[in-house]
Amino acid sequence: MPALVDVQGLVKHFPGERALLGLGRPRAVVRAVDDVSFAIAPGETLGLVGESGCGKSTVGRAILRLIEPDAGRVTIDGQDVVALGARPLRALRRRMQIVFQDPYGSLNPRMTVRQMLAEPLAIHRIASGADAQRRIAALLEEVGLDPSFAQSYAHELSGGQRQRVGIARALSVEPHFLVLDEPVSALDVSIQAQVLNLLAELQRGRRLTYLFIAHDLAVVRHIADHVAVMYLGKIVERAPAPALYAGPRHPYTTSLLSAVPVPDPKAQRQRIVLAGDVPSPAHPPPGCPFHPRCPHPKKDARCRTEPPALREVAPGQLAACHFAEQPL
After folding, report:
1. Are 51 and 278 in contact (CB under 8 A)?
2. What's the confidence (pLDDT) of residue 277?
3. How far apart (Å, rounded) are the C-alpha atoms in residues 232 and 283?
4. Do the beta carbons of residue 27 and residue 282 sit within 8 Å?
5. Is the residue at 87 inside a domain?
6. In a domain, 262, yes or no
7. Cβ(154)–Cβ(162) below 8 Å
8. DSSP alpha helices (H): ranges in the chain?
9. 288 lies in which domain range?
């Protein structure tokens, strides 16, 4: 099946800060996203996972051109997003939408829920008047809210209700592809499960395609068909979800999985605590970007000098590690 979303060689660098009062040369370039590639089939979910600052949110925004990528190719529904002019890009935005992490910060506090949902309908000339009101009521019911919530302001809603409004707003223009940027990380655990179940139901009912961005592999496990793990602007492992959870091939993925709680109290899992902090993306280490923190017993001089390629180490499973065939 051809991919609905195809990302090849995506790059986004940001200029470093200048010295005091803006004088002097800019500091080293921040390599937020450095040659990221993946594809998502229609109706499937790719979980993009990594620590804060690894570049995963920048990937999502660059795909939608909320920020302009520096290089690479992004194809959605057969159209090259990066090459589109303003008018065709605006038309394509109906097919690609985003749900943000902070449901309060992403909603206009001066607008009612009805006004927030009516705005995209008017901008894209989908509906107006009584037809728009019917669509708004149906959208609220679809995300598990009573239509009476249309009269509410964001501050009158709980965190879970606000996130449902954000999802309804994204769905209002009938997209094919959603970027879900940590959509449950700001919610209580009990509410997280409800929102994840809602997203799964919407995906089945509307045959949506998701890029689900998260820092928690436990959350991604419940919704993703495939998982890509990012570290310092690069994808270090990519695999079908069952294969990655059963046998991770990159030591960073292994360490992340070791932190996931196990439901069975009798089950034993060795906790891997990484040394040090994530290096600065403005000054990435030479060789393998993970080598200063890597706990792999086979680590050698090659790790410090030779960047590992993202290569297939098992059927459908790719890892950027010189010792991927010898997992921890």
Report:
1. yes
2. 80
3. 10
4. yes
5. yes
6. yes
7. yes
8. 56-63, 86-92, 113-123, 129-142, 159-171, 189-206, 217-221, 241-246, 251-258, 301-305
9. 5-43+54-95+223-319
d(CA 31, CA 45): 26
Q: Which helix (H) or strand (E) holds 46?
A: strand 45-49
Distance CA 176, CA 46 (A): 14
Q: How far is CA 140 from the centre of its chain?
A: 24
233 domain-assigned: yes
Q: Tell me the HSE value of 166 on the side-chain side, using a 13 A CA sphere.
A: 29
Tokens of 89: 């890009």
DSSP state of 153: B
Q: Calculate helix-pair angle for 113-123, 129-142, nearest 10 degrees.
A: 120
Q: Identify the DSSP state of 156.
A: G
Answer for the pair 88, 65: CB distance below 8 angstroms, yes or no: no
**Pairwise CA distance, residues 59 & 64, whole Å:** 9
What totals of helices (H) and strands (E) does the chain contain, helices first?
A: 10, 12
* Token pair in block for residue 52: 């804060």
CATH number, domain at 26?
3.40.50.300
Please choose, from the candidates 106, 150, 157, the residue with its C-alpha nearest in 3D space to the C-alpha of residue 132: 150
Q: What is the pLDDT of residue 81?
A: 96
The mean pLDDT value for 28-38 works out to 92
**Predicted structure pTM score:** 0.92
Residue 106 counted as domain residue: no
Distance CA 158, CA 152 (A): 11
Beta pairing, strands 234-240 & 226-231: antiparallel
d(CA 217, CA 259): 9
Number of domains making up the chain: 1
Q: Helices 159-171 & 129-142, crossing angle to 10 degrees?
A: 130
Compute φ and ψ for 317, nearest 5 degrees: -115, 120
Backbone angles phi, psi at 56, to 5 degrees: -65, -40
- Does residue 154 sit in helix, strand or coil? helix
Which pLDDT tens digit goes with each residue over 243-293?
Answer: 999 999 999 999 999 877 766 666 666 777 787 788 888 888 999 999 999
